[in-house]
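Dear colleagues,

As part of the handover before I leave the project, I'm documenting each prediction I ran so the next person doesn't have to rerun anything. This entry is a single chain, and its sequence is reproduced below.
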Amino acid sequence: MFLMAKGRLLQMTRPSLHLLKGIGYIVSTISVALLAIVSWESASKSPLLTGCLLGGAATSIAGMFCRWLSYEIEKRQEERQDRKKPSLGSPASSVTPASTAGTPRPAP
């Protein structure tokens, strides 16, 4: 994802993307609540409309929470994978405890 700043494209880091997604879901949740408040006067005149309004607002917020949670899980999985990757220049398969201790390895 990219942002424009002074006519230039800036690449966003993973943490900033995650924060932006979280802020977006908070804004959407507030929007749902505000729309429900505005609609309450009309909807409160009918039990069916009241149920639909409350159910719609609740399912919308629950859906946003589920999407946010899926991004959080993906982020944590990526962080775990990044920690498991060996650093560049030192492949894990070429270093063994015997070779690091100075003991020659037997020929295959």
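The chain is about 65% helix and 5% strand. The chain has a mean pLDDT of 80.

All the best with the project,
I.
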